[in-house]
Every structure is written in C-alpha cells, then in structure tokens.
Amino acid sequence: MNNPYFPGDIVYMIIRNPHAQDVAQVQQAAVVQHPDNPSDLALFVHETYYPITDEYAIFTSEEAAEDAFREAFVSDDEEGQFYG
After folding, report:
1. DSSP, res 84
2. Are 45 and 11 spatial neighbours (Cβ–Cβ below 8 Å)?
3. What is the pTM of this model?
4. 64-77: per-residue pLDDT in tens?
5. Per-chain mean pLDDT for the chain
6. Phi-psi group of 50: left, alpha or beta (phi > 0 → left; psi -120 to 50 → alpha; rest → beta)
7. Residues 6+ apart with CB under 8 A from 40
8. Helix (H/G/I), strand (E/B), else coil: 1
C-alpha cells in the first residue's frame, strides 16, 4: 500500500465496534508514528493504534467517509437515518 499520510494528518475511518461486529461508525483519527515501530505510521483513535493497511477504510474527508458508510451500511429503507 502506498501510504499518502503524514504524522499529524487528521483522517476519517469506518470502524466497527469490537464487541458488536454489526455496529460501525465513522470516526475521526490522527495519523501518528507507531509507538512500537517509529518507522511506521498508525491511526490513533479511542486510545488504540491501528496500522495503516488496506484492511481499514480511510478517508481524507468526513463527507467521503459518511458517503461510503451509507453505501455500505444503510439500506434503502433506512436512507434518512445516519448512525455515524
């Protein structure tokens, strides 16, 4: 993965609740140097470090993250309800 992020960048990610995998939300995250490997970057959110990989949906704008969230998680009959 070609990493276009720099320490201090603010990004938005779609993150699942680890206790309820059917619950997801858009969350703001900070790009930081990984504390265990300073040559790598990580996403810092909810006092947890996440590696920057293709496993996470990362967006540079909240609007883009919300649009992707709606497309992936909101059915047509829930269109007016946003849970991010």
Report:
1. -
2. no
3. 0.78
4. 999 999 998 887 65
5. 86
6. beta
7. 33, 34, 51, 52
8. coil
Rg (CA), the chain: 14
Backbone angles phi, psi at 26, to 5 degrees: -85, 130
Tokens of 2: 């070609």
Q: Please choose, from the candidates 45, 59, 44, the residue with its C-alpha nearest in 3D space to the C-alpha of residue 11.
A: 59
What tokens were used for 10?
């603010």
Question: Does the pLDDT of residue 82 top 60, yes or no?
Answer: no
Tell me the pLDDT tens digit for each residue of 7-30: 999 999 998 877 877 788 899 999
What string of DSSP letters covers 22-61? EEEEEEEEEEEE-SS-TTSEEEEETTEEEE-STTSEEESS
Give me 37's structure tokens: 């490997």
Q: Which residue in 8, 23, 11, 21 sits closest to 65, CA to CA? A: 11
